[in-house]
């Protein structure tokens, strides 16, 4: 009887551990695009040795990736995030609109657009952390005319 009771407790404890699973790649991508540019929130999902591939460059390590995002978002750290799909302020730049988030195995994906720019991002996730992010963008503003 004691063995059956111990086995039942072990089974229940094991079930509790199963409920505390790592976030899925799609959940990590949702959190990433929903951060509103909060650098600390974004960086919490990256592995220490993560790599971001963008514009033909490999940005490696959390410090370098943080610098990349600080350049994009102006160092925003706290405060309520603006809605990614909200209308831009009058006369301001367009805001990012998320079109689709999904996953295939350990890879999370997002399609988004912002004005004329369209992008697909891929996130390789292992042990609940982004190891590799690849960003593919097209259709940005036209290049300045050459004189």
Polypeptide structure, described:
With 147 residues, the chain is an alpha+beta fold. Helix content is 30%, strand content 33%. The chain has four helices and six strands. The protein has helices spanning 2-19, 25-33, 39-43, 62-73; strands at residues 46-54, 57-60, 97-104, 107-114, 117-126, 129-138. A six-stranded mixed beta sheet has the order 2-1-6-5-4-3, covered by helices on one side. β4 (107-114) and β5 form a beta hairpin. The longest helix has 18 residues, at 2-19. It is globular.
Note poorly predicted spans. Answer: 5-18, 78-86
- Proportion of residues in extended strands: 25-35%
Helix content: 25-40%
Main sheet characteristics: 6 strands, mixed
Shape annotation: globular
Number of helices: 4
Taking all Cα atoms into account, the compactness measure Rg is: 20 Å
Encode the helix/strand succession as letters: HHHEEHEEEE
Strand order of the largest sheet: 2-1-6-5-4-3
- Count the beta strands: 6
Mean pLDDT: 80
Q: How far do the termini sit from each other?
A: 89 Å
* Class derived from helix and strand content: alpha+beta
SSE map:
Elements: H1 2-19, H2 25-33, H3 39-43, E1 46-54, E2 57-60, H4 62-73, E3 97-104, E4 107-114, E5 117-126, E6 129-138
Parallel strand pairs: 1-6
Antiparallel strand pairs: 1-2, 3-4, 4-5, 5-6
What's a quick, concise take on this entry?
The protein has 147 residues and is of the alpha+beta class. Helices cover 30% and strands 33% of the residues.
């Amino acid at each position: 009887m004691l063995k059956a009771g111990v086995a039942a407790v072990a089974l229940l404890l094991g079930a509790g551990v199963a409920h505390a699973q790592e976030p899925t790649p799609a959940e990590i991508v949702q959190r990433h695009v929903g951060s509103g540019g909060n650098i600390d929130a974004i960086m919490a999902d990256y592995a220490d040795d993560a790599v971001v591939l963008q514009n033909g460059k490999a940005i490696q390590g959390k410090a370098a990736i943080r610098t990349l995002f600080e350049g994009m978002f102006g160092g925003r750290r706290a405060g309520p995030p603006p809605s990614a799909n909200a209308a831009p302020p009058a006369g301001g730049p367009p805001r990012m609109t998320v079109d689709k988030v999904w996953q295939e195995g350990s890879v999370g994906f997002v399609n988004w657009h912002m004005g004329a720019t369209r992008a697909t991002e891929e996130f390789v996730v292992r042990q609940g952390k982004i190891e590799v992010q690849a960003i593919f963008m097209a259709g940005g503003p036209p290049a300045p005319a050459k004189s």
